[in-house]
Amino acid sequence: MIRVYVKKQGNFAVNTPKVKKKLQEYFIKAGIVSNADVSLSIVGEKKMISLAHTYLKENNIVHNVLSFPFMETDTFVEPPDNVIHLGDIIICYPKVVDEAKSQGRLIDDKVIELAEHGAAHLLGEHHE
């Protein structure tokens, strides 16, 4: 079973069950068949700027999505609870709203796209 934990920093209008389901489906299609979990946080601009500063050493940058793998190691060690902790995906809600509006898309669809993009990074896919 793949568990998706969602935390919203504010009262952001996101269909959480739909996003969870799509993210679970993404991981299953990617071959994750063991018990696994991932956290998805939907935050405001200040929090995203703070994360970019703290972890990427960037100043005043608002990313639409960031991802942080739980374990970055060359060898796999079985977690003691037999659950693969994939990591964290953080999405900036105000950025999503702006991008969805400019692309003529639904906010939930943009959130799903960015969540899947973050999930790809957790699984080792990176930009060139």
CATH architecture: 3-Layer(aba) Sandwich
Taking the sheet with the most strands, its summary is: 4 strands, mixed
- Strand portion: 15-25%
Strands of the biggest beta sheet: in what spatial order?
A: 1-2-4-3
Shape: globular
Distance between the termini: 32 Å
Q: Indicate the structural class.
A: alpha/beta
The CATH H-level homologous superfamily:
Metalloproteases ("zincins"), catalytic domain
What average pLDDT do the residues reach?
88
Quaternary class: single chain
Features:
alpha/beta, globular, 128 residues, four-stranded mixed β-sheet, Collagenase (Catalytic Domain), 4 strands
Describe the structure.
- The protein is of the alpha/beta class.
- The chain has a single domain (2-122), classed as Collagenase (Catalytic Domain).
- Helix content is 41%, strand content 23%.
- The protein has helices spanning 16-29, 45-56, 93-103, 107-122, and strands at residues 2-8, 36-43, 65-69, 84-92.
- It has a 4-stranded mixed sheet with strand order 1-2-4-3.
- The termini are far apart.
Write the layout of secondary structure elements.
Blueprint lengths: L1 E7 L7 H14 L6 E8 L1 H12 L8 E5 L14 E9 H11 L3 H16 L6
Helix pairs in contact: 1-4, 3-4
Give a quick precis of the structure.
Belongs to the endoribonuclease YbeY family. The chain contains 4 helices and 4 strands; from the N terminus they run βαβαββαα.
